Amino acid sequence: MTSISNKTFDEIKVGDNSCMKRTLTKFDIELFAIVSGDVNPAHVDAEYAKKSMFHDVIAHGMWTGALISTVLGTQFPGPGTIYLAQNIKFLKPVYIGDEITVSVRVVKKYVRKPILVLTCVCTNQRNKNVATGFAKVMAPTQKITCKRMVMPKVTLSSQDNKINEN
Amino acid sequence: MTSISNKTFDEIKVGDNSCMKRTLTKFDIELFAIVSGDVNPAHVDAEYAKKSMFHDVIAHGMWTGALISTVLGTQFPGPGTIYLAQNIKFLKPVYIGDEITVSVRVVKKYVRKPILVLTCVCTNQRNKNVATGFAKVMAPTQKITCKRMVMPKVTLSSQDNKINEN
User: What is the pTM of this model?
Assistant: First the structure.
């Protein structure tokens, strides 16, 4: 996909939905720790994590939150959407290799403003909910199609040794 | 700081608080777009963003959410904290160069379980709230001090040309 387009408020009905799948990698956890500064050992210290109640490193909860934002901002409603609020419950840990499906569904359309409320459900490959919540967005009122920007390539390196690339 | 330690549930009182400052860079926005897949043009397409209602690229709302998680997971209560839920309202756009202060404060301690509710307030350098909400966490019950892991160095490169480093 080289372009990205939206659904406008008028095109969207209650019940409309969209979903996306993403498999968690160690690289994702490291990048998330770097961009957030969240170096909680549950996420980045394998030795600590092995002895913790989750027995291995787990994703940052807000990584799942970020995936919800990705569906809303790039798929549905897409460009022009303004994120107003999110609530999210973190129900189960997400491990490296877990395939997360993020689904959003419109449950309410405001009348006087182009505002939508959507349920957000993130499930793993065993169909267990790992996070659920509600998003509130101002939906776009104009049709937008624009170029899908190609992001730079990321390289992570420890001291002088290259260790991973996206 | 080469180590990271926590406050246990028993050590924490209602009213206790912690804060952290972080200045948004273009690099942060790009990394967040890469790790989340959220290439909404409001964040990564400068040309589009100039013509948008915000007149420039803005941070992903969930970047601010991630900073809240960073305070909770690395400072207060710190290691051993389990993130149960977050709600967050995105009130104002965050621009490159904005210095965001994230403050969390305990407003409720549960009696039967080591659960805390904290208010979360993110302000910019003009002391305007950019995001506010509540976090619910299970606080650690055991004192933990562990090594602060050093994250890999990140390099972003466009095609073959290196463009930025953290």
Answer: 0.93
Q: Which long-range contacts link A53-57 to residues 24+ away (Cβ below 8 Å)? A: A53/B82, A54/A93, A56/A95, A56/A96, A57/A26, A57/A29, A57/A95, A57/A96
Residue holding tokens 């994120």?
A83
Question: Is B76 an interface residue toward A (CB < 8 Å)?
Answer: no
Q: Which residues of A touch B61 (CB under 8 A)?
A: 69, 83, 86
The domain segmentation of chain A, as residue ranges, is 3-147
ipTM over 0.90: yes
The answer to whether the Cβ–Cβ distance between B73 and A157 falls below 8 Å is no
Question: pLDDT tens-digit profile of A66-112?
Answer: 999 999 999 999 999 999 999 999 999 999 999 999 999 999 999 99
Percent of chain A that is helix, strand, coil (3-state, to 5): 20, 40, 40
Distance from CA of B14 to the nearest CA of A (A): 22
CB B140 within 8 A of CB B6: yes
DSSP string, A77-103: S-TT-EEEEEEEEE-S--BTT-EEEEE
> Is residue B115 within 8 angstroms of chain A, CB to CB?
no
Q: How far apart are CA B86 and CA B99, in angstroms?
A: 22
Q: Is A30 on the interface with B (CB under 8 A)?
A: yes
Right CATH for B3-147 from 3.10.129.10, 3.40.50.1260, 3.50.50.60, 3.40.50.2300: 3.10.129.10
CA-based nearest distance A146→chain B, Å: 8
For the segment B64-74, what is each residue's pLDDT rounded down to a tens digit? 999 999 999 99
- In angstroms, the Cα distances linking A151 to A44, B105, B122 are 24, 37, 27
